[in-house]
Amino acid sequence: MGFKKKQMLGFGLILLFLAILLSFMMVTLNNLKSSMTEIVENRYEKVSASMEIRQLFSRSDREILFAANDANKEERADSLEIINENHSLIESKIAGLSGSLNKAKAKQLLKEFETQYASYSITEAEIIQKIKSGNSSDDLSSLMEDQREKRTKVISTMDEFKDYQEGVMNDTLNNSKQTYEDMIGFVIFAVILSILVISVTVVWMIRSTSKDLQSITKVIKNIDYKNLSVIPRVPVRTTDEIGDIARSFNEMAGSLEIYNQKEKDFTEKISEQNWIQTRVADIATMYQRIVDVEVLADRFITRLAPMMGASIGAFYVKRGEDVDMRFVKLASFAGDGEDSGRREFRLGEGLIGQCALEKESKVIEDIPEDFQLVTTGLGEVNPKSIVIAPVVFEGEVVAMVELASLESFTKLQKTFLNQVLDTLGITINNVEGRMEIERLLKESQAQTEELQAQSEELQSQSEEMQAQSEELQTQAEELRMINEQLEERNRETEEKSKELQVAKLNLEKQAEELKLSSKYKSEFMANMSHELRTPLNSILILSEMLSDPNDSKLNEEQQEFARVINSSGQDLLTLINDILDLSKVEVGKLEVVFDEMNLSELPEQLHRNFDHVAKKKNIDFIIEKSKNVPDIFFTDEQRFQQILKNLLSNAFKFTEKGSVTVQIKKADEENVAQWIQTKGASNWVEIKVTDTGIGISKEKQKLIFEAFQQGDGATMRKYGGTGLGLSICREFAKLLGGWVIVDSEEGQGSTFTFFIPSMPEGFKNVGEAMAASPEVAAANNDDSAAAPFDGQGEPDVVIVDEEDRDKAKPFCNKTVLVVDDDHRNIFALKNALKHEGMEILTAENGYECLELLKKGNNIDVILMDIMMPGMDGYETMTRIREQSKFEDLPIIALTAKAMKGDREKCLKAGASDYVSKPLKLDQLLSVLRVWLTN
Fold this sequence. Notes:
Layout: H1 3-69, H2 73-100, H3 104-133, H4 141-221, H5 241-286, H6 293-308, E1 312-319, E2 326-333, E3 344-345, H7 350-358, E4 362-364, E5 374-375, E6 380-381, E7 385-393, E8 396-405, H8 411-460, H9 462-547, H10 556-586, E9 595-598, H11 602-617, E10 620-625, E11 632-635, H12 637-653, E12 659-666, H13 669-673, E13 683-691, H14 713-719, H15 725-735, E14 739-745, E15 749-758, H16 802-808, E16 815-819, H17 823-835, E17 839-843, H18 846-854, E18 861-865, H19 873-882, E19 891-895, H20 902-909, E20 913-916, H21 921-933
Parallel strand pairs: 10-12, 16-17, 16-18, 18-19, 19-20
Antiparallel strand pairs: 1-2, 1-8, 2-3, 4-7, 5-6, 7-8, 9-11, 12-13, 13-15, 14-15
């Protein structure tokens, strides 16, 4: 039986006995409750009701006697009224008892009481009638006698009813006491039995599992932690959870053995690499100050053979070219005079010649008995292994090396040989070059001496002059041939120049195509911005109006819906701006302005921006700044702040508990150099943003820096977001000369490190950022185009608080002309401005606008859309300004395209001010207030 089943069976038996005990106690308590309820709520009420009926009856009887004998007229009237009230109360009490009785005898007694009381009531009514008629007490004596007899019967029946109910109540109380005593006895018995069952069950569970656990503990104690190559295994006797533990331990032991073996293999490989590098360095040191190939060959083969464990070796160097090319032996190791190998060979001759021809090494293991013998002082032995290797320089074999050993060459020795021969070709070429220079120098010296001798002979021998003349002719012929060769080279140079010119034209054409493609892409992004911002404008304005608690007629839930719509619209606007930012970075048109900033104020700024987020999520927000961080720093502060904001926003978003820590310190330039070039910076700062959130798996740490990418689909569904933040961070960091890296472990949190240089001179090779051409939408750099209005992007805007607005009322009875081809925008603006008390006129294009102005409408301000069919906003504003009477008419340009330079273009066309879509209602009203009050 499995460990889990044992646990479930044991605890199941315990719970079963507890359930039985609890069930019996519940049943018994329920019976007690029923009995007590019957005593208190049923029997007691019935007895109490019977007592009240008797009291009412006795009082009525006394009032009758008083009215009949001693009362005056007024007292008699009061007594009769009391009798009637008591009669009504008695009847209602009887009716109440009749509905609550459940015993036959009780119902019979109550029936008798009702009959007797009815008879008594008839007699009582007759007495009352005669009293009202003024009869004397003597006239009432017979009726009073009859009334007393009936009263006695009624009281007797009522007492019998009360005694019966009290008897039933006493019986129920006795039964309850007996039930309570029975319950106490059973509970004591059940508790004792439960203790016994639980004890037996626990002992059985402990004994059944301790044996298997002891066997596992014994194996673990026997592990030799200093030698993990062989780990003992736990015997698996069961299939339960303890058996699973044993199997898992065995699997872990196997994994540790494999890891230990891999560690040994890795150590062995490192040792081999060290062995190779040490000997390669030794041979490379030997190459120094060698100026003769024979000396090089002799030293090389003498040094190489012992390192390779070879017993004999030979070194061949190439001599001659083409058909005269051959390989000549220049040196040998442990050779036997003239018999130690061939003196020379050509390509393809023998195995060594074939290796030279194929430019490949060859290792021979199966050596025949009659092969070259290795000679020692005591005799000769056959080699066990031979290696033949070419020395290659620039694709040509310049030498051959052959080694023989009494043992087989190891893989390590072969690898060492290949690495040595890779540099030997260069060394041979250098040595031969130096030898050729020395030879030419000697020949030059010899020719100089010879010319001097010839010059002396010319003076004395005319015959030698003729010989010299012939020699000069020969030299002239050589010069002619040299000139022809130069002309041929000139022609080749001209052909190459033409080819380079064609390649240059092709590159220029591709550059033009790339520029055109970039322009089309930028135009698409700008138009996409316009098409998205236009409907978004209506959504934001109307949702802001609906969510205003002071003006909206909606209930709280509907206002919350409006606030959600407005918040979603703002998120969409942020996404549009992020996409445009990324596009500007891709085409290299994002403006970067390096200026002085104060790093000492950075912690306070971060606390101010993110303390409320940390407080809301109930996590710690810690900022640590080293003392060696410079206070003055040169960079683009806007991009710098945006990078930190994105990194901290991500940290807070993906952290549910724990902390978010920012560490600011001066960076080590050598450490930064492994990620990015460090030239040109006065100093570097390293900013680490560490969180205790969900973390990022290793395989996805590169993916998160790509646009529209997050850790996985579940992350996006749970935390939201577009996946642009980190992509923008890395691109902005590159623009600032820095870099962003991540170090994270899934489930343990993440650390994003931002390296940034201080650049007092900026980047000298950065081209013009944000040129005036419409290549990239300027949504982020134009404060009025995309950034939320903060009172700094529009210097002409005046912020007026609610109290001043109520006092000033600048919009009342003002007429505004809204010119827009989008009915949604017209609807939104019309409702928003009408709410402020303004008169609204609308036009769908420039022609309608001009027509309305011609009609002489008293228009105070015009809201002009730019992108309209037919006549756009630029041309419309130009035509309006051409009319002298409209020179001072305020025209506010509205556009969703938000291109770089649009503001200047609008002002040049005649606009008084410029506001980008989607509009913020407060911003628009502030602009209107400025122009209407001016």
